[in-house]
Fold this protein.
Amino acid sequence: MPDIILASASAARLAVLRGAGVEPEVAVSGVDESGYQAATTAGLVAVLAEAKAAAVAATRDRGIVVGCDSMLDLDGQALGKPGSAAAARRRWREMAGRTGTLFTGHCVIDAATGRRAAATAGTAVRFGTPSAEEIDAYVASGEPLGAAGAFTIEGLGGWFVDGIDGDHGTVLGLSLPLLRRLLTSLGVSVPSLWTGRGMSPDRPPV
């Protein structure tokens, strides 16, 4: 079973992998995101995902490194983590009642060989129309400050998302179907990564 190294501090991405039977090592890349640019939101998350994966892979001589980055595209503007309560509140006033696209870039690198595969997925997110009081309460919770696009769907933010059109994993920050395709292209079988976590005791690995 190859070692999987998640180049991300995201609790949501870690939970997705654990729920899918993979127990990765976590190694935060330390990449300064402010130093990267791209013409589109999809392009930017792709560049950042590869930079994060490459930074961690450079410190290893073995293992499969998974790098990801997510941002919300609204009117062609790339929206990452708001970082402050004022910015989060302003974001929600702009997003309320509208639809944006959450893009997540994925990059997988075999640290032993340097081989890599990358792709980006996008999922449409239809936002509800929370009241001013609800927005204030959500921002006060602190949750949106560290989330791409200033929202989550698995936490308190789920109250204010009317629906999504696409893979929910993309919105969580890691698409399992896309990751499987990338791993397969590098010759890594997904079942070989399963540790049994997240699997029913009545359904052993086959």
